[in-house]
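TA notes, week 10

Several of you asked for a full example with nothing omitted. So below is the full record: structure tokens for the whole chain, then the designed sequence directly under it. When grading your own attempts, check the secondary structure regions first.
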């Protein structure tokens, strides 16, 4: 049967319980905790051949991995759904960008039970997602820009070509939307000194507790022909107020030497920040995996390798900030 294995570990990372649950969804959503009830949500979408609809499939489990509820709800006709492009979980709701085709997207807000609250059809000409998004699919993240009133932000690449570098680059552009996904402002994050923000590669942005934002991404220095990763701090007006380079500077010819892990950035209660990223010095797909820990002023406190690149294509499929301030990493 198609399904998922769920595992429970204690604080010492010892396995205490496991269970197999039948689960047909192939397009997975984030595994989240339900804020209204004391349980967890495993969910995703699948195409139901009987009604030609994409269904939201969800399983709710308690702390002991007992299934407390199963949900199967038709959401969208097959012609209006191709892939989950971006997701955000906020205040008990999933905010989802569904890609239909090259320039056509659906913005959807629904709760964990499959109740749709907001649905909007959008073309890339609306300046939410650019035409170039179909060329290569980095993670253009959604984030909460404001809570009262509720407003979202989306980070994408304002594409342009560079005369000395054989690729497509551009300044990252932040698009701000109201709770109905109507754009009310766009803002470009321009280059920082000799560094050009390479938004065409992996990047992450999160809201900070002080009202600002933290942006973690790769940057390129065309003058020196090197690149590295950079953590950038923005104020509420999305102006750059501070930055810190992360990892080694490597030749730009080694294009994929540095990459940001899935999720990639977490803020702790005291304002300190965890970063997950990888560095492949030989570009041979045997990347070293790192965790960096910085204080609230972006000073690096420590940096550690948690995977030394012995295997091809190591995958970090999930990471989570724990209640005690630790960080849990999962993958294979």
């Amino acid at each position: 049967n198609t399904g998922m294995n769920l595992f429970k570990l204690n604080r010492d990372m010892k396995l205490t319980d496991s269970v197999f649950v039948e689960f047909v969804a192939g397009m997975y959503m984030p595994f989240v905790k339900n804020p209204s009830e004391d349980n967890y949500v495993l969910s995703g979408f699948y195409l139901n051949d009987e009604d030609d609809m994409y269904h939201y499939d969800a399983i709710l489990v308690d702390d002991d991995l007992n299934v407390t509820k199963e949900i199967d709800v038709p959401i969208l006709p097959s012609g209006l759904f191709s892939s989950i492009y971006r997701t955000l979980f906020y205040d008990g709701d999933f905010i989802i960008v569904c890609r239909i085709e090259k320039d056509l997207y659906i913005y959807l807000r629904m709760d964990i039970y499959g109740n749709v609250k907001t649905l909007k059809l959008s073309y890339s000409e609306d300046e939410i997602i650019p035409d170039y998004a179909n060329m290569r699919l980095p993670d253009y993240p959604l984030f909460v820009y404001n809570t009262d009133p509720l407003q979202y932000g989306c980070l994408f690449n304002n594409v342009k070509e560079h005369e000395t570098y054989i690729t497509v680059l551009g300044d990252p552009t932040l698009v701000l939307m109201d709770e109905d996904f109507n754009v009310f402002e766009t803002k470009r994050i321009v280059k920082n000194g000799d560094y050009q923000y390479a938004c065409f590669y992996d990047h992450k942005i999160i809201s900070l507790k002080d009202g600002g934002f933290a942006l973690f991404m790769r940057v390129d220095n065309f003058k020196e022909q090197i690149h590295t990763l950079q953590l950038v701090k923005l104020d509420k007006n999305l102006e750059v107020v501070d930055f810190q380079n992360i990892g080694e500077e490597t030749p730009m010819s080694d294009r994929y030497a540095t990459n940001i892990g899935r999720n990639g950035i977490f803020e702790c209660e005291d304002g300190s920040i965890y970063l997950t990223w990888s560095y492949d010095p030989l570009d041979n797909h045997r990347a070293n995996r790192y965790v960096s820990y910085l204080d609230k002023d972006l000073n690096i406190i420590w940096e550690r390798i948690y995977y030394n690149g012995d295997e091809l294509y190591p995958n970090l499929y999930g990471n989570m900030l724990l209640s005690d301030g630790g960080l849990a990493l999962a993958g294979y």
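The radius of gyration is 20 Å. Use that as a sanity check on your answer.
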